[in-house]
Amino acid sequence: MAAREPALTSSNATASDAKARPKRSTSGHLRRIARLLAPYKKRWLLATLALVLAGAVNLALPQAVRTAINDATRSGTTDSLDLMLGLALVGFVALGLLTFARHYLMTWLGQRVVVDLRDRTFRHLLKHPPGYFHERKTGELVSRLTSDIQSLQHTVGTELSMALRSALMATGALVILLATDAELTVTMLLIVPPVSFLAVWVGRRIRAAARKMQDLVAAANSGLKESIEGIETVQTFTAEHAEAERYQGRVIEAFDAALDVAVARGGFMGAVQIAAFSAVTIILWLGGRRVVGDSMDPGDLAAFLIYTVTIASGLATLSNIWGNLQRAVGASERIFQLLDETPAIRSRDNAVPLPSPRGEVAFEGVGFSYPSRPDVRVLDDVSFRARPGDTIALVGRSGAGKSTVVTLLARFFDIDDGAITVDGHDLRALELEDLRRAIASVAQDPVLFSGSARDNIAYGVVDATDEAIQQAARDAHIHDFITGLPDGYETLVGERGVKLSGGQRQRIAIARAILADPRILILDEATSHLDTENESAVQAALERVMDGRTTLVIAHRLSTVQDATVILVFDQGRIVERGTHEELLASGTVYPKLAAAQLVDGPS
């Protein structure tokens, strides 16, 4: 018996660990967001170059105004004003071109980061085992991949660019002002530190409120998805009004949270504008007195005012961006939390490949409890062996542990005790992708995707030829039906195959398993939705597929198990009887009762 490995960590524990980790600062999150731009350094550098050049042009224009006005007032001619007009027009054209380049490049970067982040997050989510999704609402995960990631697009594509531009302009203008008139500049700067402290304080409030708002939006999306998916149940129980009221309550909560964000941001922006324009007014008053007293040239005052407005507008822009960045940080926290969660089931670093599996399966003293119910023993000391060509039927009442056996074989969970081996290798030592590629299953209620009939049959075999797909469909007795559809194999089957009957969905799932050509085949009453004629034909096709392969059958009907190599009878998580159909009828105690009831039973 293999040594016991640590029990599987539950999804709840994973989420709790993620919440327990110390929260990153705003700068930490921004650095992590900025790292998303690393693959696109050249475009980022070009965008930054365009931004710097545009800033230089903007900072140079007030100097032209200063020189022109001073020359005009001293000489009494307009020559310098005419020259200033020409230079300004040239500068405006250059600004327009540079602005276009910066906007295009930064928008491209923002959209590209969204694509990369969605792709990365979705790929990471797909690595988690089913238990992870059992503990989470699908709508919340969808909200993370849509609204949360989309909020980062504006940050990366626009906000960072505007923040750099505003910071560059404000800093450059401040340096020039200090060189022009230090006393007036110090007067203006008396207003800046309080605004900076206010920005930090309000930013924290915005971040907390934004995080709350995003959580409430995710909860509303989750409820919406559940209502739509369960629309038949909703309408059967006339619960439309209750669902609408529940959804309205959730969106109103999100609305109230959004108002909290708006109040914080709006109040801060208003305070910044009051401070900024008060500074401009005070500078105009002090500078005007100096011009009247001949201690300052009119051109110097004009340039000083332009630079002051530049700083004021830069501060106003930065205040708005600061609020948006806090909102983006709130969204990024949720996204990065998903990315930081390590899948509970994954391949080891030194995993053993399984390039040519034979399909020999062995359970040795397997014990297991689901992470969500650690005190309930689902399997207890389960042992059996299946060789290529064997058909192992699993029978028993609901909750006996039959379905758990095949769930563990696909390694959707790790066992607590004992060992499960394939071709002599412990499942936990195998390359996970190789293991699952060796297995195909047909469920009693198979899952189809919203693509075409062809896509669903070829699911998992991306390079399948049309001939191979059609042959699999013929073997599953679904080819004639598909070719009779308006678009043949390209006909869309609808979400979860809703445009097809239960029997048609089941036959497409059987064709999918046939095409996958697995070494281990799992059948969960794979012909339950078929009529007698089609069941006989499809059963014959399945028997051809089962030939030479290891087959595990979760049986709910007597006809399914009569020809099995071995029948395993489960009761309360243990194998209580085993043997052929005839042997168990002759010597069993539980099996004859199940057979008398025709093994009609639900999944376990």
State the distance separating the first and last CA atoms: 26 Å
Average predicted local confidence, pLDDT: 80
In CATH, the homologous superfamily of the largest domain goes by the name ABC transporter type 1, transmembrane domain
CATH topology group of the largest domain:
ABC transporter transmembrane region fold
Please report the first level of CATH classification, the CATH class of the largest domain: Mainly Alpha
Structural class: alpha/beta
Helix content: 55-70%
What can you tell me about this protein's structure?
The chain is α/β, with parallel strands linked by helices and 604 residues long. It folds into 2 domains: 26-340, ABC transporter type 1, transmembrane domain (ABC transporter transmembrane region fold, Up-down Bundle), CATH 1.20.1560.10; 361-596, P-loop containing nucleotide triphosphate hydrolases (Rossmann fold), CATH 3.40.50. The chain has helices at 11-20, 26-35, 41-75, 79-126, 130-134, 138-180, 182-189, 192-229, 231-236, 240-292, 298-340, 402-409, 432-437, 453-457, 466-475, 479-483, 502-516, 532-546, 558-561, 581-587, 591-596, and strands at residues 361-368, 379-386, 391-396, 417-422, 425-426, 439-442, 520-524, 550-554, 566-571, 574-579. Strands 6-7-8-3-9-10 form a 6-stranded mixed beta sheet. It has a 4-stranded antiparallel beta sheet with strand order 2-1-4-5, with helices on one face. Helix 6 runs antiparallel to helix 7 and helix 6 (138-180) runs antiparallel to helix 11. The radius of gyration is 35 Å and the shape is elongated. The two termini are 26 Å apart. The model is unreliable at 1-22 and 600-604 (pLDDT under 50).
